[in-house]
Structures are given as structure tokens and as C-alpha cells.
Amino acid sequence: MFGFVIRRIGVAIPTILVIITVAFFMMRAAPGGPFDLERPMPEETRQTILANYGMDQPLWRQYVDYMGNLFQGDLGPSLKLRDKRVAEIIAEGFPVSATIGILSMALAIALGSLLGSIAALRQNTSGDFSIMTFAMVGISIPPFVMGPILALVFGLYLGWVPTGGLDPRFGMTPDRLILPIITLALPQIAIIARLMRASMIEVIRSNYIRTARAKGLSATAVIFKHALRSAILPLVSYLGPASAAVLSGSLVIERVFQLPGIGKHFVDAALQRDYTVVMGVVIIYASLIILLNLLADLLYGVLNPKVKYD
Amino acid sequence: MSLISTPQEKAELLETAAVKGRSLWDDALARLLRNRAAVASMIVLGILVVLATIGQLLWVHDYDTIYRDRVWIGPTLENWHLLGTDAQGRDMVARILVGLRVSLMVGVVATIVSLVIGVTWGAIAGFVGGKVDQAMMRVVDILYSLPFIFFVIILMVVFGRNIVLIFVAIGAVEWLTMARIVRGQTLALKGMEFVEAAEAAGVSKTNIISRHIIPNVLGPVVVYVTLMIPVVILAESFLSFLGLGVQEPLTSLGRLISAGAQDMEPAPWTLIGPAVTMMITLFCLNFIGDGLRDAIDPKDR
């Protein structure tokens, strides 16, 4: 197991380096730069600004400098937001993004596996049918459709929750987070419910479950002690892709609900050629996704003794 | 006395022979046609495709005609603005028709791109096997764990909002699962007795591939393709929503939804129209995909 972790990290580090390199050169290949204003500035001023950020150097030199700073934990200054370091921007946005991401993942796992199990145990009844219809709705309606609709219905028409993002005076209050979390979780609830139903149906038909029933265990014990343990495995291997989906979903959610998270900066920064902010966000998200994938794989191994890390 | 005496018995026998002679695909089709949700979805989707293709020619308004005096008119029969007008006074029905066309087109073309890459990659890995297989699947594993949407976003920024690029970029991102499915199928099929039997009987390699491997890989691929189209449509809409997809005055469902979300307070119909169209489209595609999966591979039901 230890060797497995080391080997995975051995793959992860070059992967992240490749991501950073590709993102760096792709960003620089984009036409235009961060200091192209609508009215042209004198060439002299321009040169001073470029020199200030080390951008008068040849590209390879800038890359080496960037990587050097990165290894010392310095993501550099934002090129567009005056007097802001990228690390500050990320530190400010991270709590919001993380809260929404973690809570919607938790909601998706809890509700998704519950609904999926119920559907499986009542296969081909009206309960099963309605849960699967709900799941189909969840899969078919993307967050960027669901978000505005929920905001329209619950915010504007019913007035149950305030619209218009977080209130800077109170920060993250439940009434302002509930819609983003539900919106982000819905497709995942649907996917997990479908996964869970399929694997639960397979498990409860297997011989060892029949044995457990035959020896007189109660239905609850059979489900919770025996069936759930194997039925949950496909869900665990879906956790990696799910976390990636939630992270990229946050790009949209933070825009729809005007939340000051990390994702909100990314598209604006890319359009404005704020190279350092784009790089910072890519690095954070890529590392998170790789880390979560590794954790999911480890968890899978813990739950499934058949897996051997050799 | 002959075994088959009456014409009636003869007919019955022929009938059973006909039933026995049904191929896997006839069977699958019959099962699919029994699935009411899938059939209804196929009909609705067919109507949507026809509307998206020729609807514009028939509709009274053009998608890019701006009526300056008719900004944000709610759904009304007057002037045939059945779904209202948008912030610039353009007819929503016409805009939705164009948006639907672009979204469906992106869905099909990008899916074909990913189909080609995925099937080639997976088939080579599966056929060749060994070290090549391991290396190729390792690449897929690593790519799987990448935040691809970020690269697509950067790509769109680098090369501008080009519709061909959208096809290629999305297709290039979505091929991974296809590669895995095809590789797994090929690998499993290679070791099957009927393939060995065909080999032993001296059937040529080309014939084994065309008669045994391809028809058996085709099922899962067809199912996955149907389920991939909605995913691709979503990806394009996601980009459009972020302002990175197709450019004005052309539009896609994602772009319309994005504009509608901004104007939903004064003009909720600019959101509801495209959002409902998108939901219906995705619903149909998902139901058809599920129906196909149940029909082609009934053991997964």
C-alpha cells in the first residue's frame, strides 16, 4: 500500500508539471496581453510595466523564473488586480469554493446512495420508477440551467432566499449557500443514485446475500452489514470523476450565484490574459483533482480486500 | 405420411423458423420498440431535429432581425412572437431554432470526432495488447484525472471562438471513456471461444474482425454514442454559458440560457424558452440511450 502511494505520487508530480507547462505556454500563445488597454499607453511606460513583471525577458526565461518561484511557493502577483498576489486571491476564494464543493459532495453521496438503494430494494415499483425519473431529470438538467431557474423560482417569485450573491457583511450564511449547493449536487445525486441502484440490484441477487437471508438475519442486517459494503464500491470509484465534475461545475455556479470563489476568477482572468491568476487556479484545481482521485483509489482498496497494491 | 401434412402446419413451421432466424439486432430493435419512453423520445427528438433543420425557413422571423421597438415583449400572438423577444428585440422562437440547430450539430460532430479517436485508440490497445496496451491505457488514466475543461477554456481563449475548434476541442476531451469501452470489449472478445473457433476453422483475420469482433463491439459503442451526444451538448453549452462558445449573432442553447439568466428578472421567457428546449432535448437523448442500452444489452437491466 505504501509503495502504491509512492508510485502514484511519482506519476502525479510529473503530471502536474506537464499541466503547468502546457497551461503556461498555451496562455502565452494567446493573442494580446494583460497590459493591452483600450487606449494605447506610451511605449516607455509599457516597457517599464513589462520589466516590472519580468515580462521583457524571453519566454523560456520567464518560464524558468515562474517555475523557480513556484517551487518556493510563490504564485506571483496578479497582473490585472492591482496590489493583489495570486495566493491572496486564492486564499480569499478558497473557503467559499471549498464549502460549496464539500457540502454538495456530501449531499450527493448521502442522498444519492440512499435513493439508489431504496430504488433497488423496491425494484420495478412506483417508488423505484419515481426515483429513476427524478434521476433522469437531474442528469438532463445541467447546473447552469437549474441554477437560474431555482434562483428565479425561490429567489424572485417565492422570495424564500435572497438572490445576488453573498452579503459581504455576513459572509457565508446558509440562506445564500443553499441554492448553489443544491444546484451543484443535483446531477451528482442523480448519477450516484443510478450507480447505486444498478450495483445494489446486482448484489442483492448474489448467493452470499441469499445465504445471509437464509440463516435468518433481519432484512436491515442483511442490507447494512452485507449488501451495502459491496454495493458501495462502484460509487467509491466514481468519487474521483465526481469531484472533478463538482470542481468544474463550480466555475458556473459561482458565476450564476455571484459567489466570490476561485472558479469565478478563472474565466475572467483567462479572457483578460491575467496569466498568473489563470496558472494559479489551474494548479490548485489540477492538484486537488489528482489528490482526490488518489484518495478515492485508496478508499476503494480499503473497502475492497480483493484489490492488491503490488 | 409426411411429417408436415396440412398447409396450416407448414405455415406455422415457417413462422417459427422466421422467429428463430431473427438476428441480435432484430431482437434489440423489437425490445427498443417495446420501450415506450424511448419510442416517445425518438418521436419528439425527430420533431426537434426537423424543426432545427428546416424550421428557420418556415418561421416568419429571422434569428438575427432586430426589431428595435419590440424589446422584451412577452409571449404573444401579436406579430407571432410566440415565445416573446429578447433584450435586442429579436424573436425568441427563431433564436431557439438556430440555437437548437447549433447545439445538435455540435453534439453530433464532436461525438463523431471522439468516436473516431476513442475507437481507434481502444481498438489498437485491445488488439495489440501487452506493453503497448499498458502504455496506451496509462495515458488514458492520466488524462482522465485532468481538469480538461480548463484546457478547453484556455484553448478557446487562445484560438478565438471558432465553431470548428469547439467540435475538435470537445471531441478531443470526450474520447477517453470510448477508448476504455472499446479496449475492454476487444480484449474480452479476443479470448472468447467463438473467436478461437473461427480461428481454428481457418477464417481469415479480416473476416474475424468484420464478422465477429466489430458486430460485438458495436453494441456498447452505439449505446455510448447516444449517451455521449447529450454530454457533448452540455459541454458546448457550458462553454457558451461562460461566454466562450459560438459568437453573436449565431447562438446556441447554452448562450441563450446564459443571456436569459441575466435577463430573467425583467423577461423570464428569455430563460424559460431555451431552458425548456434544452431539457426536452437532453431528456429525449438520455431516454433513447438508456432504451438502447437495455435493448442491446438486456443483462444490465
Q: What is this entry, summarized?
A:
Chain A is mainly α and 310 residues long. Helices cover 75% and strands 0% of the residues of chain A. Chain A is built from 12 helices and no strands.
Radius of gyration of chain A: 24 Å
**Spans where pLDDT lies below 50 across 5 or more residues of chain B:** none
Give the termini distance of chain A in whole angstroms: 7 Å
The mean pLDDT of chain A is 84
The helix-and-strand class of chain A reads: mainly alpha
Q: Provide the number of structural domains of chain B.
A: 1
Radius of gyration of chain B: 25 Å
- Biggest sheet of chain B, in brief? none
Mean pLDDT of chain B, to the nearest integer, reads 80
The count of β-strands of chain A is: 0
Task: Output the number of helix runs of chain B.
Answer: 12
Largest β-sheet summary of chain A: none
- In percent, how helical is the residue content of chain B? over 70%
Approximate strand percentage of chain B: under 5%
Total strands of chain B: 0
Helix content of chain A: over 70%
- CATH architecture classification of chain B: Orthogonal Bundle
Oligomeric state of the chains present here: heterodimer
Kindly report the name of the CATH homologous superfamily of chain B: MetI-like
